Amino acid sequence: QVALVESGGGPVQAGGSLRLSCVVSGRTSVNYAMGWFRQAPGKEREFVAALSWSGSRSNYADFVKGRFTISRDNAKNTLYLQMTSLKVEDTAVYYCAAHDGGSAIATLTGYDYWGQGTQVIVSA
Fold it and tell me: How many CB atoms lie within 10 A of CB 25?
């Protein structure tokens, strides 16, 4: 059993920054690749960023390149998403996800484990 718990969301003004965290608990002995997805009201869940188990390979959606940075601390079983230059259109529930395939994949269906999400609200 694997559990993912996100935190760090909240309200922020456009142009501001937030750092999301995702703690993995349970079967942490597996080398999980992890990712961040988001879902805005009325829209489908979409890929944001992913990171391989080692942290050597990352993958970003075009709309966050240069603004968001994904990282992880395996000693703490924690995944991060540093978000800067936030835009109103970044408003969404952000979810972290994990899979044991090792690669930084962007495919939603490739992930086996999901957190409950943390809300990010960006105001103009």
Answer: 11
